[in-house]
Amino acid sequence: MHKQFLIIRMKIGNIEFGRFPVFLAPMEDVTDEAFRLLCKRFGVDMVYTEFVSSDALIRDINSTVRKLNIHDCERPVAIQIYGNEVAPMVEAAKRVEQARPDILDINFGCPVKKVARKGCGAGMLQNIPKLLEITKAVVDAVDIPVTVKTRLGWDESSKCIVGLAEQLQDCGIAALTVHGRTRAQMYTGDADWTLIGEIKKNPRMHIPIIGNGDVKTPERAKECFEKYGVDAVMIGRASFGQPWIFRDVKHYLEHGEPAVPFTFAECMDILRQQVRDSVEWLGERPGILHVRRHLAATPLLKGLPDFRPLRIAMLRAEKVDELMAILDRIVNEYGGNGLRAEN
């Protein structure tokens, strides 16, 4: 077992975390203010904003500038930026610093075509010299801790992360998050944490390493700490429709046993609150459109008999009252057993 699983508490800059830090991954159209605050309610140790385009930020695009809105009650919070040129990234970093996040994170991991094909996100893994140049310039431009999130490499034949981790550390970053897939994999197949473990075994590495990819259960989170020696784990898609996963993971890590599960009705109350929060922050129609992604993905409703018509109605709802009535009907029809879907 790695010693740090037992005794070392991770720090990023001056921010000290507990023994088993669990972070909410930055996700576009997911980690807005309402969802971040909900996840904080369930014990997540740090949250990240949706990623911010450096080009759009320095052009003062309203929808991008709004992503810099953070609140003291969600701290520690990181704002994540992406781009493929030094000057815009530096200017964007300075703008982000003015928003007073605890951490500035650089996205070198987003695999989606509209980002990667422009050489941004994971696309930077095809141009390591430029990636390092951007990283060093951003680190030098701001006074807050700078971290990086990336992947194993561009594809199976170019898994460069072990050596790249050293180079990024030499640029002065305060921590590194690694998603255990290549860009070519997108989100398919299983995340491979082997190379994440190799980074931790490298005696030259001294910055915290955060592991990401397929952390879907409390048991898997514990395994990642024990087997790969990571300093923190990051949860992304497994939080969709079940923000209580952070409470379950934290309890298991700290006590070695499962938390008492919420009932079906209690989980549905949480989802109702998520609807209300989303509408309050974004407005009725955009808030409902946003939260429907979470409702569609929640494991709470998977496998319910004869559920398809209700699911279709739920995903077509455009008014709060309409959506709440459907959620009430789901509880009335399926909540009698008092059970909760497993993570």
Report what the structure shows.
The protein has helices spanning 3-6, 33-41, 54-58, 62-65, 86-98, 113-116, 128-141, 161-170, 194-201, 218-228, 245-255, 264-282, 284-297, 308-316, 320-334, and strands at residues 11-12, 15-16, 22-24, 47-48, 52-53, 77-82, 103-108, 146-151, 175-179, 209-212, 232-235. The chain is of the alpha/beta class. Helix 5 packs parallel to helix 7 (128-141) and helix 12 (264-282) runs antiparallel to helix 13 (284-297). It is globular and about 55 Å long.
Oligomer type: single chain
- Alpha carbon gyration radius: 20 Å
Terminal CA distance = 26 Å
The assigned CATH architecture of the largest domain is Alpha-Beta Barrel
Q: Could you please say which CATH topology of the largest domain applies here? A: TIM Barrel
**Using DSSP, what is the number of strands?**
11
* Strand coverage percent: 5-15%
Main sheet overview: 9 strands, parallel
Shape type: globular
Question: Structural class given helices, strands, pairing?
Answer: alpha/beta
